[in-house]
Amino acid sequence: xxxxxxxxxxxxxxxxxxxxxxxxxxxxxxxxxxxxxxxxxxxxxxxxxxxxxxxxxxxxxxxxxxxxxxxxxxxxxxxxxxxxxxxxxxxxxxxxxxxxxxxxxxxxxxxxxxxxxxxxxxxxxxxxxxxxxxxxxxxxxxxxxxxxxxxxxxxxxxxxxxxxxxxxxxxxxxxxxxxxxxxxxxxxxxxxxxxxxxxxxxxxxxxxxxxxxxxxxxxxxxxxxxxxxxxxxxxxxxxxxxxxxxxxxxxxxxxxxxxxxxxxxxxxxxxxxxxxxxxxxxxxxxxxxxxxxxxxxxxxxxxxxxxxxxxxxxxxxxxxxxxxxxxxxxxxxxxxxxxxxxxxxxxxxxxxxxxxxxxxxxxxxxxxxxxxxxxxxxxxxxxxxxxx
Length: 388
Known about the structure:
Number of strands: 12
Oligomer: single chain
Strand content: 15-25%
Radius of gyration: 24 Å
Shape: elongated
Helix content: 25-40%
């Protein structure tokens, strides 16, 4: 006799409760083994091996990425929907008393714990489900954006739904992430003695400064959801030498990819103009992956919100249409149905991601409630999205 959805959820939550200590240990292991993006060898291996212990078929490494993996569990013979959970496990630099430690100040250890928790709990009900439970380990979210490479290499081509949650300062299922291009501009001039023969020089640093002036003039004509931030990465060797090499980097963001492409071309034209004014040569390149904006699947969003409400989450922020940061999950959302949500840590006063205070809420006793809440909500959403 097949179980109805209410009974399946009840059993699912019982399985998650039974696995609670193990799920917490997953998050703690990743927290204690904090590693930078594309260097998460201990964390990724641990997660892959943990899934293998629970009967998942694991590919590690995956698609030529040393710290990516894919784990699959077939339910009811495998026929049906493929639902993917997306753990992250890279950490951030610059923490501790000397600001020289790597730490999970964005809570990716928590994401690893709750996504594996959801997947493993579902796998224990395989006889009453159908389809495939997939866990795709996604490295380097904080830097180059590993999901962008995974998308480009076809990791999500057979996925019917992707689910992820993140810790935050509020309950938000309307998260805005901006599309982003990352461009580096290199200007080449001619070195000369800055006092004796200045007329013989071509000042590459002048080109960088003129580019910044052009970008700043452009700001008054940008849409309100656009953000442009730049730094000078090379500006010369000595004051008495006309700089023949100078460089700068820009993050260019907008709410939608279509407008971002228009804005990026305008930024490039600022660099072209600066090169023309100074006589310098200019080259540019993408120094990180380009991120797409996050597109929600409304059916998945409705299911996740409903399951969170059933689990006691009521105080969602009503809207989040202000400009925000960027995430590589946006790229996933452009190739398969995706839902993403932030859950309040419960800290009062509030704590915010990347702040040192956030570290106290991503693991240990302060993270237990949110960890299990997220695991249950994501698992229930996968159940209703095609595994039941």
